[in-house]
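Subject: two folds for Thursday's group meeting

Dear M.,

Sorry for the delay on this. The cluster queue was jammed most of the week, so I only got both jobs back this morning. I'm pasting them in the order they finished. Each block is the input sequence followed by the predicted structure tokens. Could you check whether the formatting survives your parser before we put anything on slides? The first protein is the one we discussed after the seminar.
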Amino acid sequence: MAAHAPVARLARAMQAAGHLRMLVRIHSAHIYECPSPATLENGPSDSCGKRQRSPRLSRRDSHMPAYEKTPEAVARLTAEQRRVTQESGTERPFYNEFWDSKEAGLYVDVVSGEPLFTSMDKFDSGCGWPSFTKPLEDEHVVELRDMSHGMIRTEVRSKHGDSHLGHVFPDGPRETGGLRYCINSASLRFIPVSRLEEEGYGQFRNLFEVAKK
């Protein structure tokens, strides 16, 4: 019996080593699948340390309209609207639809329909084009460096429609930030306050109601 003792101890040692290798493999896999919090981006995590995806509402889920450029929308443009929005043209000053309009309402992109400016931020700059002190929502406006015609300017385009809107200059009213968004009427579609709900922009009506008070 004593002769078999070393064999028994060796067997137990081999068995223990086998368990250890298995534990190492499991532990390694656990580390690979569940990195430490230091290697994760900030955010909620599950019990394993993996970041959970925050639920995102689609435009359909949140009942928001999908602002986009479509061939059908471009096909509906007039020759002047196409020249301005698609070819980065500029309409004649004082000979355009909205340069001196004072009606209350919302100005949206003529192609995508995304809301861009309001009458509340419109002012008479004397330049002959519609002028605004700021966009309604910054996320719908993209500003790009424009070096055409031997000048350095900042072009303004719509984000979803990619329409050329005009340019922004640092010569606006100081009390409102000093900016002048000089926009082509041909890039815009105007929606009066009385038609906001009908046109699908009812969520902005409260802005005009507050402004009246």
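Second protein, same layout:
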Amino acid sequence: MERSSPRSSRALLSQGRRGRALPAVRHARHRAAQRRRAPPCTVPAVAEQASPAAHVSATAPPFLLVHDAAVRFVPLKQSERLHSALRETGADVELQVYEDADHMWLGSPRAAQQALERTVDFFRHRLT
């Protein structure tokens, strides 16, 4: 009797017996590729559903959005949009923007310290 490893079993489930992806797996891979790689303008419904701003409610927990404005990876507009969406529902939300800091506070240890202090204050205020 031939024993199969968990890895080979997973490959069989996702690829079928002949090594080809099963239709459901191909479809799931296509959807995942759309979410990760497709430009938002080509799949706006997918991009919209991927946005946290599309899933806000008044029952959301308190939010502290801390954004470094010089960041090259996540536009400030995204944090502003989430902040606005949460505020419109009546959720407890604050947006703190640090103008002179890049991703992970590179180049601005002062902003990193301020962000840490602001975060600690936020939790102290909300948890006590």
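Two things I noticed about the second structure. Strands lie at 63-68, 93-98. Residues 109-127 form the longest helix (19 residues).

Cheers,
T.
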